[in-house]
Fold this protein.
Amino acid sequence: MARQLRFRGTVGSGVWSPSIYEDAESGEVIIHGPPLNDADDIAQLRHLSEGEVAVVVPRELLVEWTPKDATRQARIIDLDEFEDLFRTFSHSAWRLETRRRYASDEATDTYRQFVATGGVEWDESDPYCELIRSQTAQGKRVERVRIVDQPPTTGQLYLLNNAKRNSRLGEDIRNLQRADADSLQLPPDDFWLFDSRLAARLRFDDGDHLVDVELITEPAEIVRYSVIRDAAWHHAVPHEQFAAKPSSGE
């Protein structure tokens, strides 16, 4: 099974771009960079076994991007505590949506209405709407980037329609083609970033049901999620301008 590598950072921008990745399952760190080729240099290395390769990386790559807390235990919160984050954030809540379907959407009357008619009569008075409307009315930012396949899945088309409602609540919603997300090396993580200091990574089961949420405050991880946010936001298109094909890929 292939590793689930998370891009941590790089200090390069040209042909040689030494970079660090972390295996999401094992926590192992993978580094790539230009090979150490000089025979005299290699002769000074201890414990270099057959098949191993030495690479050269700038010191700042290790200082700035290596995971700092190897013993960090995941802090898992339930969905009620997760909901409280939307009441307590101070200035910004930002979301990256990466999945092709969300089982919770498919269980709603609005989803069934969308599948049957292609449209939805949205209720903007439910508790979530009231909460987000009250937060954005205070000048707080609620933003999200949705990754969309080509052609979009039925679930993605439903969320494209849902963007009309959420925009009226004060959310700023943008979309990004999955091919573009892949070229940017955006991770598969589905997460919220609150106030650029706390990340909430959503965890789903094999049936695409949201099970719980991992709360992340490790500084290096927050920097990584902030870099992801900036890249996705820069390249995403406002949902009003996003041209999605009207057919489903499912």
Q: What stands out?
A: The first helix runs from residue 39 to 43. The two ends are 26 Å apart (CA to CA). The first strand starts at residue 5 and ends at 10.
